[in-house]
Amino acid sequence: MSESSPSASSSSDESDSQIETVANGVKHVIINGDNKPNSRQEETEKSEDEEQFDLGMKLGFKNLYSGKEDKKGRFQWQDTIPEDIGDPVENSETAKWALLVRNVKVYNDPTKVLSIHSIVVQSPLLKKLLAGVLKNYPGVTVGLNRLEFSGKFEPLIHRWAELQAAISKLGSTTEEQRTTKQHAELLQGILVKEFKGLIDTSQDMMSKGVMNFDLLWTLYQPGATIFSRQDGQETAMTLNTTRYGLDSKGVPCFWITGKYVDWDGTKFGTQKLNICIFVFTGTRAIGSLKAYPLDYHHDAKALRERLITRGAKAEGLAGSNYRAYHGVAWRMGQFGTKDKYNVKGRIVIDTYGWNRFNPGSAVYIMPLTQKEAITEDSSSEMDEHDEDGEEVDEDEENEEEDDYDEDDGGMPIDGRFADEDDESTQPAPLTTDQRLICTPVLRGYSLKNKSWLNFFVNCVEDIEWQKDAFDRLVLPKNQKELILGFTESQRKNRDTFDDVIEGKGRGMIILLCGPPGVGKTLTSEAVAEEMKVPLYLMSAGDLGFDPRLVETKLQDILEMCSRWNAVLLLDEADVFLEQRSLHELERNKLVSIFLRVLEYYEGTMFLTTNRVETFDPAFQSRIHISLDYQELSIDSRKTVWDNFLNNSTQEHTITAPQLSELARMNMNGRQIKNILKIARLLASRKEEKLAYEHVLTTLDVTQHLHNENQASKRTQGSLYG
Questions:
Q1: Alpha helices in 477-579 (DSSP H)
Q2: Does pLDDT of 31 surpass 50?
Q3: Mean per-residue pLDDT of the chain
Q4: N or C, which end of the chain has less CB nearby within 10 Å?
Q5: What are the tens digits of pLDDT across the range 242-277?
Q6: Which parts of the chain span the membrane according to its record (predicted)?
């Protein structure tokens, strides 16, 4: 049986020119004396090589290079080195030079063909000199291996006078001093040649108190104290950065960014302030600019003292403070405008409460110890050494920065505001420099306007307390002592009273019942004045009649009053106290909400009403004290007349017998006050002292009002009882 085959025959025919060898377990075919793998062998080797590595597992890296760009700056990656690439020009040879000066070709200046693009300071002696000249200049770290200046060379231009002075003081005793002076004069010569015209022009304008738009940047040195007026208030800030740009409407302008000290309710920190100076032609007086260095103010010393004094006042008002206010206050409107309010009355300064009840306008601050970011002109080739060459502990450098993340999305850190009672958040005293740049604005609540507003520090005043308000309250002595005693005790010991459920049942609710004008409202006002706490006057109209909104508003009011230890007065509370019926479903909802929310109130609440016949049983169980006010007796009316007469600066001639005669008139306290008010106006009109005749004339004119009043159920009887 034959064992030959075509393939075997072919192999035999080509034996003279083809020799197969095996080496290291790999077959090689030598053709015509050349060692060449056949195609099948090459594919086998490639296949075996690829199978040895999974994706991304081959040790090493593959370089790719950008190809030629098209007109739009686009390019394709390629694996071959571009032909136009040469050796780097900055190498070990260039590192020997004290300075590296990079130049670029100039196209738009007929006076020169080259301009300095950047300067790299490599001399350690020159760096040591610049460490003193540029000390505390934001964004400059002199201890870098490669200290680079570029752009407008702001650090060197701003500190030009300091640089000149430092060079002039250099000695020449030692070799190091002589070398330092040579390097410094070399840098000085380069800068003078390049920037002499700019420096001379800028200094000339500054000496004359003017500046043009193109050289505004030379006036503003980072770290300087900048003065401006914000909302009419004298304001100082520390300058961070400046730049030329556009405003929101595309108008060219010069942007100034600074920081000032503010209070977020628990601690002091800094906020940013951006000010825009629009483009102008020619020169302009520095003092007329929207913001300028404080030293250029015509009375800088007095201004500095005013700002420091105001800053100390703002520091003293940190926290929750009950004060008086007389001036303009404002808040942001719906369309970004500032809605202004003329406020004259009592306010509560409370930034923590502002954040709590206005989270959309909450105050967020940077830590006072937050270090400034390095500007784009500074080199990124940084080693871990400070200006003196000593190693810097990175953890130590950042330990006081509170891990602040600028990209917080307008949310408080960790999703909640700091606890104002946390001892770790208690603020340290501000320094004089920090008081200088302290905010002119405080946040708080106007008790008269019932609005959260921004208040100016200068308009905040101490309260002039009516010290005898409680003593002049016409009530039985034991009743007055009972009211004041319960109110003060509840304020001091409310945490000791609790229900089965924590936070429930800590409040004190006092019901004052009686006819109009007998002192119900005055009682709560006098108690608040005696205790020197805020009085929050609330009515059913303040809450509205939409059950969905009533609960939110009521909860906010009760929480605010509890925070401030305020006395809450719900005047004319009949709409809530009246017994519920099956036919008033909407009112039933309001009463139900009121009863539920009231359970968790932790302060003191006064309720006043003219009737008690139809009390809702659920309300009766929630009232701690109920006081019934009777019609004023003759003696009580005499005391009321006497109090109102002596409470005015206007003199009167009313005698004791005449006062007794007036006391016989069946009138309540509010009517007595109104009669005297009109009588005083009548006396002033005639330029006379208030007399008994003026009161009688007023009574005659208003007789019909008294007649209608006498016809009512509670005040039947004659005018002269």
A1: 477-493, 520-531, 540-543, 547-564, 574-577
A2: no
A3: 81
A4: N
A5: 999 998 899 999 999 999 999 999 999 999 999 999
A6: none
Q: What are phi and psi of 147, to 5 degrees?
A: -85, 110
Nearest-angstrom CA–CA distance, 97 and 95: 6
Q: Are the C-beta atoms of 354 and 363 separated by less than 8 Å?
A: yes
The sheet with strand 99-105 has its strands ordered as: 99-105, 114-121, 147-150
Give the burial class of 271: count Cβ atoms within 10 A of its Cβ; 0-12 exposed, 13-18 middle, 19 or more buried. Answer: middle
CA contacts within 13 A on the Cβ side of 569: 20
**Residue 676 contacts residue 644 (beta carbons within 8 Å):** yes
Measure the CA–CA gap between 562 and 533, rounded to whole angstroms: 11
**What pLDDT is stored for residue 168 in this prediction?**
93
SS (H, E, C) 623-635: CCEEEECCCCCHH
User: What band does 51 get if pLDDT is binned at 50, 70 and 90?
Assistant: low
The mean per-residue pLDDT over the stretch 705-719 comes to 48
- CA–chain centroid gap for 195, Å, is 41
**Under CATH, to which class is 489-628 assigned?**
alpha beta
Polymer length of the chain = 721
Residue that is written with structure tokens 């005083």 in the block: 680
Structural domain spans, the chain:
6-51, 218-364+408-460, 489-628, 634-710
In sequence order, what are the beta bridge partners of 116? 103
Give per-residue pLDDT as tens, 504-557.
557 788 888 888 888 888 888 988 998 999 999 988 778 877 778 888 898 999
First to last CA, the chain: 155
* Distance of alpha carbon 671 from alpha carbon 185, whole angstroms: 90
**Domain at 634-710: CATH architecture:** Orthogonal Bundle (1.10)
pLDDT digits (tens, 9 = 90+) for 147-188: 999 999 999 999 999 999 999 999 988 999 999 999 999 999
Distances (CA, A) of 229 to 273, 274, 294: 12, 12, 12
For residue 28, give every residue at least 6 positions away whose Cβ sits within 8 Å of its Cβ, in sequence order, or none.
20, 21, 22, 35, 37, 41
